[in-house]
Amino acid sequence: MNKGISAEKIGKRLKNIREKYGYSLSFIEEKTGISKEDIEAFEEGKLSENISLIDIIQRYSRALGLNPIRLFEKDFKYPNVNFRAKFIGDNEKEIIQTVIDFIYLISDYYHDLTGEGLPKVPYYPLMEDNLDIIEDDNEAISHALKVIEKLKKDIPEFQNLKELLKKLKVYVLEVDLYNSIDGFSIYVPDKSIPVIIVNKRIKSVCRKRFTIAHELFHILSDRHKEFPPLAKKIALINEIGEKNLRIREKVANKFAQYMLVPFNEIEKLLRKNKNLFTEKNFKEELMKKYCVSEDVLDFIAKDFRLKTKSFNLKCSCKRIDNDFPNLLDLYNKLKASEEFDEEFLKEIYEEKIGLT
User: Fold this and answer.
1) Domain match, 170 and 283 both
2) The last residue of a domain, from among 303, 324, 345
3) Cα–Cα dist 31/93, whole Å
4) Is 273 part of any domain?
5) Which CATH number goes with the domain that contains 36?
6) Which residue has the higher pLDDT, 126 or 25?
7) Helix segments in 68-226, DSSP class H
8) C-alpha to C-alpha distances, 136 to 30, 127, 131, 218, 325, nearest whole angstrom
9) What's the number of domains the chain is made of?
10) Which of 225, 226, 255 is nearest to 84 (CA)?
11) CA 140 to CA 146: how far, in whole Å?
């Protein structure tokens, strides 16, 4: 944070961010409990006697879905956050914001902890244009497979999801989210570590692995634009009908399917027998081999326009992200640092997002 920054500069910065993303004074008043008159005065650099500078920054930044520290960066951008969720309420929103702050905290100390610069993840910007075309299922599959092929070309030695995450230095973190959220991802190049967050409450290992693969797609191929504020992003998810968001989620799902169950392997098997997806033993073998759910296999059968039969098979896979790059390893190094009070970290992060 810049030292000695004036209330006038802070107010002007908040006003610019508010206007850039289309927030009205009424919206800020409702979310912060601060009157329009005090908001307008603050944005002009005048402090009200009714509220302190620190208090107004905290309330204002939370209304905009921001870490207050980010307000003081010259090249500020909203973090690239994508969710795998049905609905996100106010309680979930607060946890998400705390997780984002936590990731930024570790990112700020990443060099000291590892001796390395922030990881740079390859970018495959195939979704810049033609989203209407990608809405077609075949185009969605084609797009997902192109990203996988580019990955194999750039990182030929990777054989599975675990190895790929290690090569890319994408970290996984399990936290206690509410039941409506499977997970989400956050990555801002040159600003943060790439992290995939998975809900601790999910019991199915297959579902967790699918969520990780799904969110990896967003990190690799869905970060080309400056993202909207957290509050607006959540509003789009809760409205469900936002077309571009639906298309992106569809492609991310196809990427996850064929990252976990290789497309060409399925093609080879089907050349021998096109009725394989109606056989229980075949499904059980694939579920065990690739650690996926029966639902994933049914979607693959649909992609190939094949008949399938549901046997209500349960995921029996026991492998999970103990082998993935774990953000808690970095967190534990941060706690051991003399610069940080372990009790402070425990109170702010461990208790709020269930890290232990």
Assistant:
1) yes
2) 303
3) 13
4) yes
5) 1.10.260.40
6) 25
7) 90-108, 110-114, 131-134, 137-154, 161-168, 205-221
8) 41, 14, 9, 19, 34
9) 2
10) 255
11) 10
**Pairing verdict, β 195-199 and 171-175:** parallel
Token pair, residue 221, equals: 């191929």
Cα–Cα distance for residue pair 307/109, rounded to 1 Å: 52
Is the distance from CB of 212 to CB of 320 less than 8 angstroms? Answer: no
pLDDT at res. 4: 43
Looking at the structure, tell me whether residues 96 and 64 fall in a common domain: no
Whether 150 is covered by a domain: the verdict is: yes
Rounded CA-CA distance 32/280 in Å is 56
* Run of H or E residues at 83: strand 81-85
Q: Are both 87 and 47 inside the same structural domain?
A: no
Q: Round to whole Å and give the CA distance between 128 and 132.
A: 11
Backbone φ and ψ for 207, nearest 5 degrees, come out as -65, -40
Q: Angle of helix 7-20 relative to helix 36-43, nearest 10 degrees? A: 110
Determine the Cα–Cα distance for residues 222 and 150; give it in Å rounded to an integer: 15
Residues 297, 208: one domain? Answer: yes
In this prediction, what percent of the chain has a pLDDT beyond 70? 82
Q: How far is Cα of residue 93 from the mean position of the Cα atoms in its chain? A: 13
Question: Tokens 């922030």 belong to which residue?
Answer: 118
Do 298 and 206 have their domain in common?
yes
- For residue 26, being part of any structural domain is answered with yes
- CA angle 263–200–88, rounded 5-degree value: 85
Whether 348 maps to a domain, the answer reads: no
Tens-place pLDDT, residues 57-96: 778 777 766 666 666 665 555 566 777 877 777 777 778 8
Domain identity same for 160 and 193: yes
pLDDT tens column, 8-45: 777 887 888 777 667 788 888 888 888 888 888 888 88
pLDDT per residue as tens digits for the range 172-219: 999 888 777 899 998 888 888 999 999 989 989 999 999 999 999 999
